[in-house]
């Protein structure tokens, strides 16, 4: 069995914390990243040195903007690609970011139409789109075939279940992770060095930092 998805937060703490996350902006653009997960991404990008960061679910582009600036800070030549059904209108702040129109429910088609299979390796994938069970399971299955050993997939917002929002997403990321990892041992490893850096699953992405085996 996959280990517990329980976070160390009390329900009142979690509600207040998540409210702050949903209000968080980066450079005046909605970003919705928790402070702990920003710290974890800083560490992961420095350690894994991905050549391409691929984000599924753009929203307003704040997260992609943050990751581009992190790469600049580290003086890394990291390509930034962000995918959404309806990419936002952007300005010069977003220079260097590739915005792709695509659908999480058609990953193979999205990758093929936009020549994403040719993106430089290693990859760091951030799944932050619909958060539904079907979408998350589709992403896990797609990258089972297309990630290389040692590359990372971060499954965002498994914490929705603890916020009593799991039913809204048919179980969401946590259900997809639990079922996939239980039924497909040897595909991904939960990297607890990230999930547990600030306490066991002290992240909005419990058990969501995955390394391809």
UniProtKB/TrEMBL annotation:
Keywords: Methyltransferase, Transferase. Pfam families: RMNT_CmcI (PF04989). The keyword Magnesium does not apply. The keyword Cell cycle does not apply. One of its GO terms (molecular function) is methyltransferase activity. It comes from the Bacteria. One of its GO terms (biological process) is methylation. InterPro entries: RNMT_CmcI, SAM-dependent_MTases_sf. PANTHER family: RHAMNOSYL O-METHYLTRANSFERASE (PTHR40048). This is CmcI family methyltransferase. It comes from Sulfitobacter porphyrae.
């Amino acid at each position: 069995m996959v280990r517990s998805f329980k976070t160390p937060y009390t329900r009142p703490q979690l509600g207040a914390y998540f409210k702050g996350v949903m209000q968080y902006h980066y450079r005046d653009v909605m970003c919705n990243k928790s402070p702990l997960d920003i710290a974890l991404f800083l560490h992961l990008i420095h350690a894994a040195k991905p050549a391409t960061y691929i984000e599924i679910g753009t929203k307003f582009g704040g997260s992609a903007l943050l990751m581009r600036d992190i790469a600049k800070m580290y003086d890394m030549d990291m390509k930034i690609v962000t995918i959404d059904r309806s990419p936002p209108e952007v300005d010069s702040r977003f220079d260097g970011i590739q915005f792709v129109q695509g659908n999480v429910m058609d990953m193979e088609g999205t990758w093929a139409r936009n020549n994403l299979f040719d993106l430089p390796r290693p990859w760091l994938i951030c799944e932050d789109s619909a958060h539904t069970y079907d979408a998350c399971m589709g992403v896990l299955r797609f990258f089972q075939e297309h990630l290389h050993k040692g590359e990372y997939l971060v499954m965002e917002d498994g914490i929705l279940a603890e916020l009593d929002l799991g039913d809204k997403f048919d179980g969401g990321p946590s259900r997809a992770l639990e079922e996939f990892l239980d039924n497909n041992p040897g595909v991904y490893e939960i990297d607890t060095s990230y999930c547990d850096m600030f306490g066991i699953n002290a992240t909005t992405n419990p058990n969501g930092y995955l390394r391809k085996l």
